[in-house]
Amino acid sequence: MHSRRRLFTLPFIGLFAVACSSAGAASGPGLEVGSTPAPAEAGISGTPGAELLLAGLSTFDAGDAGVVALGLDGGRIVVREVVVDPGWTQQTNQHGDNGVEVRFSGPDGAETRVEADLGSDGTLDVDLRERRAATDDVKTISLLQAGTVT
After folding, report:
1. Which one of 1, 27, 69, 150 is CB 3.0 to 4.6 Å from 80, fit for a cystine?
2. What is the pTM of this model?
3. Cα–Cα distance between 136 and 113 in angstroms, integer?
């Protein structure tokens, strides 16, 4: 199996907008690059492969598995919505007031985990881990503002 891990540390206050896309657009619902999502209660729509960081709502591309939208509710971090791409399932776990985990299970034993923790300094630390069978296929990995790795 091949494992890949990305760690993001982001301020969770103010207004931020960052759009990234992943190679090989996955099928299924997700977020549209450059769009402004509706309020969290209304849900997410568009195409996968984008991260928009807005005050009160942060969305993270979980690769081939889907998209995770996080927010704050009374000072605690919560999962607002999870969009699961076809062929994948997901399980969400709350870890106290300061942490959440979304675990995706996919074909051929593939697994993607999005773990997010709210730091005491107001930062949102997001850890994305992917585990899948190693192949010779070329894969481009988004690193937000830092660019991509192929």
Report:
1. 69
2. 0.58
3. 23
